[in-house]
């Protein structure tokens, strides 16, 4: 077992860190304050293959291994979690299901534009009555000749306001709640597809999370991913991969908060000494660093399981559960170490604190991760 990063992973981290600090660092706070999606940075990310991280090279992607992928999301999120979110959702739950379940024809049609970032991907499962319970999806797709006609509303769609291609979960067999959902690849210019108001969120404010509406939205049968009724299977596989991305995002936010707290603790003087000389503050820093190290090990272990080709769902769930919780704890302590200034928008830790919380909610809440982990534990023979 080798705990040292290999040269490839060191190179990826250095390159992404430099890019993120140069291009996003000076504007990340403003993007959050203005709820602005930075198209000018996206333009620069396109040729660098940020949108084709796990797409095969034959379709224009970078074909990264999972640890390189996690490092990329971690480093982007360390500077701007909202842009880390855009990239991870696009790659892991937008593009990856097509890589894994698409036909040769579908891959040829959809993957190059996703890999090049000309189309930003979105994943549309959640609805007003279908959150943790994906079986509650009410959006439906009715077969009409060779086509399907989709009607329904999706909520909380990451990248919703900027997406060019959305994976839509819709019921095709209303008689069968569990196996009745299917997935459709729908281009944003399709008649009947429209974007709702951008959500006014606590964090991730630079990502245009929105509702998407489908009104008699007609797509060809060639836009069906997998077979009719494969929705749950595709959704769960996408979320296993997605959870690696969210764990990486959470870790990146926590790392940023820790770095800021360490620096501030050495600079801030009280009682005639730097606050880092107080044992309590040292204990906080030690705990934060230990948790981040532990989370990183869990995350890279999930990546190794994925790349070995075996099942990795419970490992990804453990990484997401732990990394999101540690991000909440670490950002909370980072605010505490900054005292009143940590509660002010003048300091970035206030943004990290707001951004961290949602990593415990999306792509399966922490309660759902525990269900995934427990199900795997209980299904093992004793
Ligand atoms: C910023 C943001 C971005 C998002 N992006 C997307 C996206 O791109 N695509 C998408 O499809 N969705 C997205 N979502 C939606 C997100 O995935 C859901 O919010 C999440 O799955 C939880 O669903 P819910 O909000 O309906 O909560 P609910 O499912 O109503 O849960 C409420 C509470 O009950 C708990 N709970 C529910 N069922 C159980 C159970 N069986 N046992 C124990 N506890 C339970 C939950 O854990 C939670 O604590 C996003 C959400 C946010 C906030």
Commentary on this structure:
The protein is of the alpha+beta class. It has eleven helices and ten strands. Strand 2 and strand 3 form a beta hairpin. Helix 4 runs antiparallel to helix 5, helix 7 packs parallel to helix 9 and helix 9 packs antiparallel against helix 10. The two termini are 28 Å apart. The model has no long low-confidence stretch (mean pLDDT 97). The structure holds flavin-adenine dinucleotide (FAD).
Which keywords apply here?
Butyryl-Coa Dehydrogenase, subunit A, domain 1, Butyryl-CoA Dehydrogenase, subunit A, domain 2, Butyryl-CoA Dehydrogenase, subunit A, domain 3, 3 domains, four-stranded mixed beta sheet, 11 helices, binds flavin-adenine dinucleotide
How many discrete domains? 3
Write the element-wise H/E pattern from the N-terminal end onward: HHHHHHEEEEEEEEHEEHHHH
The set of bound ligands, ions and cofactors reads: flavin-adenine dinucleotide
On the 0 to 100 scale, the average pLDDT is 97
Q: Segments where pLDDT lies below 50 for 5+ residues?
A: none
Q: Termini distance?
A: 28 Å
CATH top level of the largest domain is Mainly Alpha
Work out the number of β strands: 10
**Could you tell me the strand content as a percent range?**
5-15%
Largest sheet: 4 strands, mixed
> What topology, given as strand order, has the largest sheet?
1-4-5-8
Number of helices: 11
CATH architecture of the largest domain: Up-down Bundle
Shape: globular
Output the CATH homologous superfamily of the largest domain: Butyryl-CoA Dehydrogenase, subunit A, domain 3
- Which class best fits the helix and strand makeup? alpha+beta
Radius of gyration: 21 Å
CATH topology of the largest domain: the name is Butyryl-CoA Dehydrogenase, subunit A, domain 3
